[in-house]
């Protein structure tokens, strides 16, 4: 159940010039599912700072606004279990590029094929710089620990009771040196003492993406899920689950969702069935070519048949097949 289809983009950077940029229009379904387990040592080419400025030596072709080729991936940014919603005009390139042209390097689009799908255009940058390009978000380090700010609130990893972790896939990274690549799945997680809850009830979030479509995006579908131990409520939080009594496994939680069934084949590979028509429905096997299925608790891969939901868990299920629409 490891990530498959490794395709690492090779780049050559020199004096601020980018050579060999591979556009996403040339990536097929297999190529876009970049391996997250392969580790490449790279040198940092820039230093993140809260305020970015465009290079005055850029050529016209390399200047911000050049969008012929670009990359995509996913960013989860969560604070005490609440996931930041990037489906907002303040994050869209069309709304911020005129005032901050450098945001072309890392941004979101209203027409993105998934709610938290980032775009990187024109220039290779570190993930630290990418975070600093997003409105309301800042990243730095203190004594080797992550320090993240969101909408004016600062979360310092050097403080007691505050934990800030940053992963690419299942691998911890240093955002000041790691360079963004096509297909990267980033997870920024902030946990504080204020986010702790009592033991009388467990709750968390469940996010399911099938071929670039997020289930329950409107918030109505999951409300009908109400078993003896597992449910969603009409409380304005679309993806928040509640579990009382004995814990349930991830597989049991998925099986409670409308039109969804999860199982494993004889080799232990994921099998995900989504019983709707069109481009999204079907039975998908992780072992099949051009199919990728991830099941994670934040940045940690879990076995859905044995992993039991714990308070504060954020579960992400990602199914990507050749049926997914091309992302230009």
TrEMBL record:
Residues 29-65 are annotated as: Disordered. InterPro entries: TAT_signal. Residues 29-38, 46-58 have a biased composition (Low complexity). It comes from the Archaea. This is Uncharacterized protein. It comes from Haloarcula rubra.
């Amino acid at each position: 159940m490891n990530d498959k289809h490794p395709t690492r983009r090779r780049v050559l950077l020199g004096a601020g010039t980018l050579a060999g940029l591979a556009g996403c229009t040339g990536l097929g379904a297999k190529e876009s599912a970049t391996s997250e387990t392969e580790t490449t040592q790279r040198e940092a080419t820039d230093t993140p700072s809260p305020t970015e400025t465009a290079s005055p030596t850029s050529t016209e072709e390399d200047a911000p606004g050049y969008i012929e080729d670009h990359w995509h991936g996913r960013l989860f940014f969560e604070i005490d279990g609440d996931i930041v919603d990037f489906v907002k005009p303040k994050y869209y390139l069309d709304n911020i590029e005129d005032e901050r042209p450098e945001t072309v390097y890392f941004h979101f689009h209203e027409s993105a094929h998934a709610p938290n799908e980032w775009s990187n255009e024109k220039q290779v940058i570190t993930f630290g710089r990418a975070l600093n390009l997003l409105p309301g978000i800042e990243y730095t380090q203190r004594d080797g620990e992550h320090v993240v700010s969101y909408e004016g609130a600062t979360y310092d990893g050097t403080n007691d009771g505050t934990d800030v972790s940053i992963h690419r896939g299942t691998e911890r990274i240093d955002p000041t040196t790691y360079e963004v690549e096509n297909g990267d799945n980033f997870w920024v997680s902030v946990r504080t003492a204020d986010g702790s809850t009592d033991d009388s009830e467990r709750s968390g979030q469940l996010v399911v993406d099938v071929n670039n479509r997020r289930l329950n995006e409107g918030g109505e579908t999951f409300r009908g899920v109400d078993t003896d131990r597992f449910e969603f409520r009409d409380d304005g939080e679309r993806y928040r689950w509640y579990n009382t009594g004995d814990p349930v496994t991830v597989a049991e939680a998925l099986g409670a969702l409308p039109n969804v069934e999860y199982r494993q084949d004889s080799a232990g590979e994921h099998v995900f069935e989504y019983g709707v028509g069109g481009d999204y429905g079907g039975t998908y096997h992780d072992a099949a070519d051009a199919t990728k299925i991830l099941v994670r608790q934040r940045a940690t891969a879990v076995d859905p048949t044995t992993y039991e939901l714990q308070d504060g868990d954020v579960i992400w299920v990602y199914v990507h097949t050749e049926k997914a629409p091309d992302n230009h």
